[in-house]
Design a protein that fits this description.
alpha/beta, 2 domains, 14-stranded mixed beta sheet
Length: about 220
């Protein structure tokens, strides 16, 4: 009887172990009944000719922003990479949603404002977009409200950043005023005479690179 009981116990534990292995081998979507995440994407681009505008402002609440020198003194070239994701094997509905992501521009005084627009309802679809601008060298740049990383490079106009994540500024020859949400910022700037470099990070570290001949006070 003891041998029989031992055999039955071994069978039970073996069955339990196999069941656990099978459950662990199952995909998450098998366990939850949720279909896999599918993503479609599209790209668009254009340009805006500047007249008296001195400031280029960009906002993107659904992704990263890149701003760099475009080599032209009279226009801003823009590029938009947009994605729509949905938990479904069939991406036809998601593809139809791509046109709902746009990059708009409007004038406000001496400022041209670029902003991504997208549907307010994200219960079914996930909307993301990369906004990239190439701007005239001497124009001032203002970046505000960015959910992804912000990268700014090779500009000669003052830069201001607000409500952004992981800000990276490189090759800047002007004043810099950055207030990021979570730090992890890298700032490389040659501060002009009478200029300033102000960096505030909500959390995390800040790496500042300045020419060796520059005098700076850190606090």
């Amino acid at each position: 009887m003891r041998q029989l009981a031992k055999t039955e116990f071994l069978k039970s534990t073996t069955f339990l172990a196999l069941t656990c292995v099978m459950l662990l081998a199952c995909k998450d979507d098998d366990l939850t009944g949720q279909k896999p995440l599918s993503t479609v994407e599209d790209r668009s681009n254009g340009e805006v000719v500047l007249t008296t505008e001195q400031v280029v402002m960009v906002q993107n609440a659904i992704g990263p922003v890149i701003v760099d020198w475009g080599g032209d003194s009279t226009k801003v070239s823009w590029f938009l990479n947009k994605q729509v994701s949905v938990y479904d094997d069939d991406t036809r509905e998601a593809r139809a949603q791509l046109n709902s992501i746009q990059l708009t521009n409007r004038l406000n005084g001496d400022t041209v404002i670029f902003a991504s627009v997208y549907p307010a309802d994200m219960s079914r679809f996930i909307y993301t977009a990369l906004v990239s601008l190439s701007v005239p060298y001497r124009k001032k740049c203002y970046v505000n409200g960015v959910s992804g990383k912000t990268t700014i490079s090779n500009l000669g106009g003052d830069v201001m950043v607000r409500n952004a994540h992981g800000v990276k500024v490189a090759g800047l020859n002007a004043s810099c005023d950055v207030a990021s949400i979570d730090g992890g910022d890298t700032i490389e700037v040659a501060i002009p005479v009478g200029g300033l470099c102000n960096i505030v990070a909500g959390t995390g570290n800040v790496l500042l690179r300045i020419p060796s001949s520059t005098s700076a006070t850190l606090g």
